[in-house]
Specification:
single chain, alpha/beta, 3-stranded antiparallel beta sheet, 9 helices, 18% strand, binds 2'-deoxycytidine-5'-monophosphate
Length: 227
């Protein structure tokens, strides 16, 4: 059976990673969370003191960008975790602080260039489901299946609240919503690879759909594409 590349793009917390993970699990494809890669770069920058409230030390980050190696490994519970230079950073990259920082470092051209290079290598054999913002437009414009996911900001903030609560945090809804809107604006208006729908992507609003329905829909679309 032919192997394809599945590119899933969309706004923050719109459920694209759930969708991508479900599809990868159903098909035996490799799943790559590219947002986690930008989060890892952000964490690396924070840890080195290169990212402050109103300032990014671009010079130092640029000098060291080729020393950032990001990989994914599956833990004993079958959950994929992100590694930064061989260190498990999965928990550390999922905070609001790192999410915000990721949105800032991802505006830098040299950061994007290096991440795209690593992502293209990961997908060179196909058989991959990759989610992000620029997968169908920049990383794999030739992807055989492209999906562009949206959902209302409030629905996305609610999902993000639940994720943070499950991690023992006590988030404030208004703050989470404001954070999502701020990231939406930055992700869609930045100069370098802004989030836009590829012309040949399937548009999908999942505000009012269950995970099971979504799973079924996408498996059907996937099967149509591989035959
Ligand atoms: O999907 P996420 O929230 O984990 O992504 C974190 C940040 O990284 C987000 O603000 C947008 C950015 N990003 C990007 O610019 N390009 C990608 N392919 C993936 C994420």
């Amino acid at each position: 059976m032919k192997k394809i590349i599945v590119a899933i793009d969309g706004l923050s917390s719109c459920g694209k990673s759930t969708m991508a993970k479900d599809l990868a699990q159903q098909t035996g494809y490799i799943y790559v969370d590219t947002g986690a890669m930008y989060r890892a770069v952000a964490l690396f920058s924070i840890q080195n003191g290169w990212l402050k409230q109103n300032f990014i030390d671009e010079e130092n980050l640029k000098k060291n960008i080729s020393h950032i190696k990001i990989s994914f490994r599956t833990n004993a519970d079958g959950i994929q975790e992100t590694y930064l230079n061989e260190c498990n950073v999965e928990r550390k990259i999922r905070t609001l602080e790192v999410a915000n920082a990721a949105s800032r470092v991802s505006t830098l051209g040299f950061v994007r260039q290096e991440m795209v290079r690593q992502q293209q290598l990961m997908g060179s054999e196909k058989g991959i489901v990759m989610d992000g913002r620029d997968i169908g437009t920049v990383v794999f414009p030739q992807a055989e299946l492209k999906i562009f996911v949206t959902a209302r900001a409030e629905a996305r903030a609610m999902r993000r609240m639940k994720e943070l609560q499950a991690r023992g945090e006590k988030p404030d809804f208004e703050k989470v919503l404001a954070n999502i809107k701020e990231r939406d604006l930055r992700d869609t208006t930045r100069q370098e690879s802004p989030l836009i729908k590829a012309k040949d992507a399937i548009l999908f609003d999942n505000s009012d759909i269950t995970r099971q329905e979504q799973k079924k829909n996408f498996l059907k679309i996937f099967k149509e594409r591989i035959t």
